[in-house]
Amino acid sequence: MTTLITGANGFVGSALVRLLLQQGHEVKALVRLGSDRRNLEQLDVTPVEGDLTDPASLQRALSGCSYLFHVAADYRLWIPDPERMYRTNVDGTRDLFRQAADAGVSRMVYTSSVATLGINRDRTPADETTPVTLGDMVGHYKRSKFLAEQAVRELAEEQGLPVVIVNPSTPIGPRDIKPTPTGRIIVDALRGKIPAYVDTGLNVAHVDDVAQGHLLAFARGELGKRYILGGEDMSLKTILGIICDYAGMTPPRIKLPHNLVYPFAWLAESWARVSRKEPFATVDGVKMARKFMYFSSARAEQALGYEPRPARRALEDAVDWFRENGYC
After folding, report:
1. Which of 29, 197, 305, 324 is the most exposed place for a label (fewest CB within 10 A)?
2. SS3 for 160?
3. Are the C-beta atoms of 236 and 246 separated by less than 8 Å?
4. Sign of CA dihedral 238, 239, 242, 245
5. Which is it for strands 67-70 and 2-6: parallel, antiparallel or unpaired?
6. Are 9 and 39 in contact (CB under 8 A)?
7. What 3 state SS string does 208-223 have?
8. Running DSSP on this structure, what letter comes out for residue 105?
9. Is the dihedral of CA 210, 94, 178, 186 positive or negative?
């Protein structure tokens, strides 16, 4: 049984690769030319160079595969060329699943995100049924993921695509080599670069639990249905407090109003357009921080047997990994 994983060298993808290998899968990994492949070192996988914007490479990668996990996505909160993000996340996803159906792939899992879901203004945990529209999406990443999930759901409904959708919350833990935007928060905290915080909240999950949730969805998920793979709801203040306490540092005590942060984010983006380097803060990021991204994984726990570990473990494992690998 050969399984294709897109984004196999990434944060969630590499955690999933390890679990699939343990279960005896033969794994093909779709990787971009020149991409960082440290997460695949010493793993028995077959790399296939390609890109979600290159249909011919997708056809080559899918050849001989029985199963598909589509984990890859362009995950950035700021991008100089937004159209590239839509081509990758939306058009590339649609092309991949169409070709997978043509290739006879019998079971597929699509990695969406809680970014596509609605949230409750009273800060109670949202779930898979919380109302949401495209107009609620802040920024190109969220909009592109919303449209991509919509495309997958349409293929499932109209063409009987054998796909299950998972919506991870905020994965945290080892092997965040890029690192992700959330991983950068941890690194910056360890470097003493976060002297203050804003009033916001996230749902924190261990990356290895999120990977396990993918396998559970693959084995037990209902076709066409989506499942939140989350952990614990935590304020940013609490998250920074756990990181700093574990690292033996003093946590930030100053809470900044969101309106005070906007000018810095605007200036950072303005400089990024000149330098072509990702800004340390983005306007969309500040807009997102006004919302508490709290979610319930009850459906996945009840239907799939998903069992996330305490979020503190995820944060501590991330701190250990970043320190051991020279990020701070």
Report:
1. 324
2. coil
3. no
4. negative
5. parallel
6. yes
7. HHHHHHHHHHHHHCCC
8. -
9. negative
Q: What is the identity of the amino acid at 281?
A: A
The candidate with the shortest Cα–Cα distance to 110, out of 230, 231, 227, 232, is 227
Query: Cα-flanking dihedrals φ and ψ of residue 4, to 5°?
Result: -95, 135
234, two tokens: 């935590």
Q: Are 181 and 126 contacting, i.e. CB atoms less than 8 angstroms apart?
A: no
* pLDDT (mean) for 241-265: 83
C-alpha distances in Å from residue 104, one per residue of 54, 56, 305: 20, 17, 28
Beta strand 232-235 pairing with 201-206: antiparallel
Distance of CA 181 to the CA centre of its chain: 10
Where do we find the tokens 């906007």? Answer: 262
**H or E segment at 82?**
helix 82-86
**C-alpha to C-alpha distances, 151 to 98, 112, 145, 160, nearest whole angstrom:** 10, 11, 10, 13
0.90 exceeded by pTM: yes
Overall average pLDDT of the 93-110 stretch: 97
Nearest to 64 by CA among 27, 33, 23, 31: 27
Residue 115 carries which side chain, given as an amino acid letter? A
